[in-house]
Amino acid sequence: MNRSRLHFFLADRSMKPSFEGSKTSKLDSKGRMAFPASFRTRLGEDYGSAISVTIASEGCLAVFSPDEWSDKRDELARMIRAQPRNRRLRRFVRMVVGAKETIVLDRQGRALIPEHLREYAGLDGEAMVVGCLDRLEIWDRERHKAHMVDGELGTFGRLEDEFDAPEADPESGGDETCGGIGA
């Protein structure tokens, strides 16, 4: 995706984000994590009691609704059909799809995170639940802190410049920036 298309996607005013913000949570000795109340309502309204969880980049977990997971799975299948000889793509798909679990939330909004997913994300104790528009990410709290300081915040300005806004669309009558972040 080129710079203009990516920034337009991020600035799309018609997109209604499902999840924003971040909250801390804890895993109990059985590996259950209570989703923070601010996300729990949304999970119950939109996801019902089942969620799809798999590995994500940078050592965290991604949480999707069953419908969103179905869309992601179909997208991965299309990529494989378009590039059947791409071994790296097949390996990536195998890793993501092979790690996916359907998890049922209990009445208290807790989910038992399977051991292989906890190990991948380094989850043991405190976790960060981060809203990422169409999904949630679950991070080990210390890993998330290091990621934000060393990876994201340290390069935020450079990243924003890299994905600079396209020119304003005269027909929309407005500025197509990413909500003024960092401006």
List strands and helices in order, with pairings.
Elements lengths: L2 H9 L10 E5 L5 E3 L2 H11 L2 E6 L5 E4 L1 H17 L4 H13 L1 E4 L5 E3 L2 H7 L4 E7 L2 E6 H12 L3 H7 L21
Antiparallel strand pairs: 1-7, 2-6, 3-4, 3-5, 4-8, 7-8
Overall description:
- There is one protein chain.
- The protein is an alpha+beta fold and 183 residues long.
- It has a single domain (19-162), classed as Transcriptional regulator MraZ domain (Chemotaxis protein chec).
- The chain is built from 7 helices and 8 strands, in the order H-E-E-H-E-E-H-H-E-E-H-E-E-H-H.
- The protein has helices at 3-11, 37-47, 66-82, 87-99, 115-121, 141-152, 156-162; strands at residues 22-26, 32-34, 50-55, 61-64, 101-104, 110-112, 126-132, 135-140.
- A 6-stranded antiparallel sheet has the order 1-7-8-4-3-5. A two-stranded antiparallel ribbon has the order 2-6.
- The chain is globular.
- The model is unreliable at 1-17 and 165-183 (pLDDT under 50).
Radius of gyration: 18 Å
Which structural class is indicated by helix and strand composition? alpha+beta
The largest pleated sheet is described as: 6 strands, antiparallel
For the terminal residues, how far apart are their CA atoms?
23 Å
Query: How many beta-strand runs?
Result: 8
Order of helices and strands: HEEHEEHHEEHEEHH
CATH architecture: 3-Layer(aba) Sandwich
Give the full name of the CATH homologous superfamily.
Transcriptional regulator MraZ domain
Please tell me the total number of domains.
1
Percent of residues in beta strands: 15-25%
Low-pLDDT segments, ≥5 res: 1-17, 165-183
Query: Which strand order does the major sheet show?
Result: 1-7-8-4-3-5
Q: Regarding CATH, which class? A: Alpha Beta
- Shape designation: globular
CATH topology group: Chemotaxis protein chec
**What is the residue-mean pLDDT, rounded to a whole number?**
76
Helix share, percent: 40-55%
What's the total helix number? 7
